[in-house]
Each structure stands twice: as C-alpha cells, then as structure tokens.
Amino acid sequence: MSDGDKLQAQTLAVRAGQVRSQFNEHAEALYLTSSFVFENAAQAAARFSGDEAGNVYSRFTNPTVSVFQERLAALEGAEACVATASGMSAILSLVMALCSKGDHIVASSGVFGATQQLLGGIMPRFGIDSSFVGQSELAEWAAAIRPETKLLFVETPSNPLTAIADIAALAELAHAHGALLVVDNCFCTPILQQPLMLGADLVVHSATKYLDGQGRVLGGAVVGPKALVDEVYKFLRTAGPSLSPFNAWVLQKGLETLAIRMQAQSAGALELARWLEAQPRVERVYYPGLPSHPQHELAMRQQRSGGAVVSFEVCGGRSEAWTVVDHCRLLSITANLGDVKTTLTHPATTTHGRLSAEQRAAAGIGEGLLRVAVGLEAVVDLQNDLARGLALI
C-alpha cells in the first residue's frame, strides 16, 4: 500500500506500525530484552544522544513497544504516542511533563477516583493546583480558568455516570485562554470517538481496559502532536513509568480485535440499558445511547455509539445495591472494565471509595449506584443474572 492510502480503523488496528525482522515473521515479534548492543563506541554515543535513531534501552526504546505506540497513534489520527505502565502513570507523566510549580488544572468532578486523588491530593504537594467543575457545565469550566491554568482535563464519557462533555466547546475554551485540552478516551477508545479530531490537544488511555480487552495486562498511553508527546517522552525516559515489552505485545493483540469488540459490546450495552429502564426496582439508568440520557444528542454527535458501560441506581442504598451484587452468579465482581467478560462493581465502596463523602456527592456517586461493563456474553444471560438480585430488593 502507498503512503497516500487512507485506511479504515479496522485495518489500522491490525496492520499499523508493524516492522518485520530478518526472519520476516507474520505476527509481530516480542523483544524481551533490557538493552541493545551497539556496533562500536561511536554508535553507542550517537544512539544515546539521539543523533542516530535506534534502540538503546527498553525503559524508553523497544521495538515491541514502538509497534503498539505507532498503531494506537494511527487509530487516534495522531502524530505520536508514548506508552506507559498504566493509565494512571500516563496521566501522571503528562502532568509532570507539561506542568510546573504554580500552574493550575481545571478538571471535571466526574473524573475517575484515582485521577481526582492525583490531581487534587498529590499534585498540590508539588505546587500544581486543580479545580473541579461540573462535567457538562461549560460556564463552570470558564469561571474556573485562571491566568495560570495550563490544562483542562476531562474524561468523556465519565466513570461511572457516563456524563458527556462537549469536546469541541472545551477545546475552543482552552485555546482561548492559552491552555491545552486533555481528554481521557478510555470508555470510547478511538473506535467510537477521536477527541483530537474534535479539537483536543492530547488523549490519554488506560490501555488496561478496552485496548487489551481481556483483562490480562496493565498499560497506558498519551497520544497527540509530536511536540507535546515528546515532552512526555522526556519525562518517561528519566522517571521510568514505562510499558513492558510483554505488555505491549499483549496490547497489540488486543488492538487487532478492538473494532469488532467495541461494536458488539456497545450493542449489548444498549440492549441491557433498555431492559434496566423497564425494571421496577431500578430508579435510573445512565447510558449515553438512551434518549433519556441528558447528553444523548451530544453523545451521538461525537461518539459512534453509546459505548459498553451502563450504570444504574437501584431503589434504596448500599444494602440494596450489595444485594444485587451478591446474588450475581455470572457477572464478575471486579473493579476492572473493558473485558470480554461482563464486570459489576459498586463504585461508592470500590473505585471511588477513597474519595470523601463530599467528593462522591459532587461526582454524583450514590450508595445505590452500580456499574456494569458489558462484555460479549448473551445479553439475556446478563439480564437473568441481575434479575435475581433485583427481585430481592
């Protein structure tokens, strides 16, 4: 194929970034090595200085990791990608690379619990302050911006309430104030949403989730323009929150089936969400693909489907929610998501359990809330499994 060919996402997920070795292997090779050998002292010096391209040390250069980075960049329509050890290390690396003492971040109050703790609890110790605002309230974002604001950070859809932010509007707002917009694209992946095409400056991923797709390994990534990604790469080269070659190889395999999985799991999630809306012991369902979702129209403009995560509130509180959880025999009770196996969690006591009661209230995380990340099982089996507990509350 020529450089001018514009390939579809399904093709990029299978073919982008592959480089074959002298053995001309069909599957991507796995390079399990800590370091690389140089031909002579001059080449070693040139590689370390960056004057000559090539692999040096697997903390910051590895062929297997490079294939994953190039493939994910291609899927997001980006110039560059740097892979990290986890999704949280991707966010940490981005903030440490692009922010300094005295800088300010505006973030959604609906970001993942660990992200809230990182931005609101840890980064202030290094002189980087954060303000948290309503996910979909553009006026709140605008009011929170200061002269020293460096980043606007949003996760859309949010975890676990699937609130939607207007990426294009936030990008315009950020750029008007000389700031950058960072979008956590974990829930949608580039198959369902491409934030860079909507004006975002950088995208972060927890590759642990849908990019892997089978709950096998941890990984993260920062994707965007080369100039910005290079700054994150410089931090990673020194600080070392790197993606291992083995994990990168597993994630490559995950990307190959990403498109078909996201399409199938999203279809299952929509079917389950419709069923949950009809259940008498369910107070509310949160799913962007439903017309009842407050940002349904916006979601359908900037996403290709509603995604694969459905959250819902049961009648009652923690006791009733735990009854549903404890009577499931099929759904996996675990905090991870993005797996082909459907997972179920009670956010208030797990993923968001370390937040204060006030922080959970601001994020809308109630005691009766449950999150289902729909996998590839038959939806009727998921319905029957949830119905067992729902019938007892």
Automatic annotation (TrEMBL):
Pathway: Amino-acid biosynthesis; L-methionine biosynthesis via de novo pathway; L-homocysteine from O-succinyl-L-homoserine: step 1/1. Its EC number is 2.5.1.-. SUPFAM superfamilies: PLP-dependent transferases. It holds the Pfam family Cys_Met_Meta_PP. Its cofactor is pyridoxal 5'-phosphate. One of its GO terms (biological process) is 'de novo' L-methionine biosynthetic process. It comes from the Bacteria. Keywords: Amino-acid biosynthesis, Methionine biosynthesis, Pyridoxal phosphate, Transferase. The keyword Amino-acid biosynthesis applies. One of its GO terms (cellular component) is cytoplasm. Belongs to the trans-sulfuration enzymes family. MetZ subfamily. Homotetramer. This is O-succinylhomoserine sulfhydrylase. It comes from Rhodocyclus tenuis (Rhodospirillum tenue).
